[in-house]
Write a structure and sequence with these properties.
about 270 residues, alpha/beta, six-stranded mixed sheet, 7 helices, globular
């Protein structure tokens, strides 16, 4: 059994404040006996006014939020699945990048969000992530983490089953789905999609989420979740409060589910 911690936060437009929240969460995770902390999408900066936020979006190597998390992880000896940061990527375009930090403070893996959130919701909300961010193109899994083989995704990726089929083919034991889900889409689809992705991959899903009303004016759904491979919700942090929660990841549960329903082994290619 591996104990993990999940952070639900209300990130804002000041990276220093967000970094302080993350560093405190690393300490809380360690004090609570967790080997690994999971944080939401855009943990370092959440600002829909891109002209204002641009001053804080820098290359990964000089990102102060990442530096603070790396130092805290090394000090407390825990892994951190840093849900995502906005960074300057190759060619000068921004990337929505998930980073896995090991207990020595080293970056063990990175994943750039593949699917851009370009939508017009009935609520009147309009989002065009692709106007500023370049999509990634690589499926990323990381072996030998405290939760086994970990697959990395970010938020809107959850709506694209082919990505999760690829993660299932790679026999991920757990999949991180950090998010900053809108309230309308969260009410309609959040729990449904998280449970479905866990079931189809026969893996744990760990979804740290943003929550509440943010300084840039947006509102996010919350309900950070841990779901087991059978689709059972082990942790739900609700839609109101910030904080940290804990859950246990059991490798035996993964093996049990895959014995009962060997859908990964039974999957057959479908011709187009």
């Amino acid at each position: 059994m591996t104990r993990i911690a999940v952070l639900q936060m209300t990130a804002g437009i000041d990276p220093a404040e967000n970094a302080a929240t993350l560093v405190a969460a690393v300490g809380d995770a360690a004090n609570g006996g967790a080997e690994m902390l999971f944080t939401p999408e855009m943990s370092g900066l959440l600002d829909r006014e891109r002209a204002r936020g641009a001053a804080h979006i820098v290359a990964e190597g000089v990102n102060p939020v990442l530096a603070a998390v790396r130092a805290a992880a090394a000090e407390r000896g825990v892994w951190v699945a840093l849900g995502s940061l906005a960074v300057v990527g190759e060619g000068g375009r921004w990337a929505n990048r998930s980073l896995l930090v090991d207990p020595r403070g080293a970056v063990a893996a990175r994943y750039d969000k593949i699917h851009m959130f370009d939508v017009d919701l009935a609520s009147g909300e309009t989002w065009r992530e692709s106007n500023a961010y370049a999509p990634g193109g690589e499926v990323v899994t990381v072996p030998d983490t405290p939760v086994g083989r970990l697959g990395l995704t970010v938020c809107y990726d959850i709506r694209f089953p082919a990505l999760f089929a690829a993660l299932g083919d790679r026999k991920c034991d757990a999949i991180a789905i950090p998010a900053a889900f809108t309230v309308p889409t969260g009410k309609a689809h959040w729990h449904l999609l998280q449970r479905a992705r866990a079931v189809e991959a026969s893996a744990y899903v760990i979804a740290a989420a943003q929550v509440g009303t943010h300084p840039d004016g947006r509102t996010t759904y919350g309900h950070s979740l841990v779901v087991d491979p059978w689709g059972e919700v082990l942790l739900d942090l609700g839609g109101d409060a910030r904080g940290i929660g804990f859950a246990e990841i059991d490798p035996a549960r993964i093996a049990e589910v895959r014995r009962q329903l060997p859908s990964l082994a039974n999957r057959r290619p479908i011709a187009n």
